[in-house]
Amino acid sequence: MMSDNEVEVSEMGDQVSPPVPAGKTSFEELNLSLPLLQALRGLGFPYCTPIQAAVLRYSLGGHDAIGRAQTGTGKTAAFLLTVLNDLINNPLPAEQRYAGEPRALILAPTRELALQISKDAKALAEFTSCRVLTLLGGMDYDKQRQALHNHLVDIVVATPGRLLDFAGKQDIYLDQVEILVIDEADRMLDMGFIPDVKRIVRQLPAKTHRQTMLFSATFTQDVLNLARQWTVDAVRIEIEPEQVTTARVEQKVYILTHDQKVTLLYNLIERENLDRVIVFANRRDQVRKLTETLKAHHISCALLSGEVAQDRRIKTLESFREGRIKVLVATDVAGRGIHIDGVSHVVNYTLPEQPDDYVHRIGRTGRAGANGISISFASEDDAFVLPEIEKAIGRKLECEYPPEELLTPIPARQSGRSH
User: Fold this and answer.
1) SS3 state of residue 216
2) CATH number where 75 lies
C-alpha cells in the first residue's frame, strides 16, 4: 500500500497525484503556478496547513486578508505563495522597471524573523526569476544599498527602521508596491514600531491600489484598528484556540525558589544529557548573566539578544543548528525568529510577562512532526503569571516540585571561576 507522499506512475509514464486525505487541501487544488508547485514538492509540502488553506482561497484572488495564527502554523508560506504567484502570473517587462522599486514589501518586527522569511521566500522562489532582497539594521549597509542600485528587486523583506533609512536617502521607492504584508503586527505594537510602519504605508500606493495582508498572534483592538486603516474589505481568518499550543509539546512547571534555578538548569542539562536546548529569560541582563554562569560550569552555550550584533547572531544560530552549541540562551525578541528543527527542550528560566510569549517560546520545540518538552521554572518572582498563561492556552498547567536529584548542588570541580 502506498503512503500519502508517494506518487503513482501510470503505464504511460505520467505522474498521477495520490488521493488527498480527508480534511486536507492539496496545493494543486489552489491553481498555484507550476514553479511554486515544483518548489513545494521539493520541500516536501504536499498539503496546506489550516491557515494556508483558509488564507490562500481568498488571497490568491487578490483579496486583502487579516490572519490570526501562532508561529509554526505555516502563515509565512501563506503570504509568500500569494506574493510569488501574483508576480509570476503578472510579469512586468524589464523596460518598465527601475532599480530600487520593489513590487512586494514584507515588514517584520525583528531581524531574525525577517531573515527567516527571506530564507523561506528564496526556497519557494527557487524555480522562478523572482529576486528577494533583505534590508536589516545591524548588517552591511553598503552591501544592501549596492543591491538596491545594481539589480531589479521583486520582493523586499525589511525591518521598519532600516527601510526608512533607505527610503529617506532615496535608495528605495515604494510607490510601485503591489502587495504589502505586515507580519506579527502585535509584536510591532509591543516594540513601538507602529509610527515607523505608518510612515512607510504613507509612501505606498493607496490601499485601494494594492493588496494588503496583515498577520498577528492576537487580535487586540489596536491590531484590528490598524487592519481597518490599511485594508479594504479584508477577509478575517482565525485559527481556533485549541491549536495555540501543540499537542506534541509536553509542558512541565517546576515550583522552586529563585536561588535554585541555576542548580536545576545545570542538572537538567547534565543529568538528562540534553544537547539542543533553548533557555528563555525576560531581560538582556538575565540572559547575559545566565550565559556567563553556564559557561563557567563548562556548558557549551551562547546568548541571543537584541544587543548582539546581527552577524554574530547569525553565526550563533548556525552553530546551534549544526550542534556545535548545546544551549541557546535567548530573550523573547531574539527568540521569535528561531526556526530550528530538532530542538528537544525549551526552558522558561523566567516565566514571560505576556502569555503570548509563552506560546511563542514553547513553539520552538515540537516542530516538523517531532515531540518536544517545555519546562518552566516558577518562583516567588514570577509564579503569579501562571493563571494568565493558562487562560491564554486554554488548559491547566500541572505544577510540581523538582525531583531531589535535580537539586543536587553543582560539583565544585565543575564550577570554574566564581560569580
Assistant:
1) strand
2) 3.40.50.300
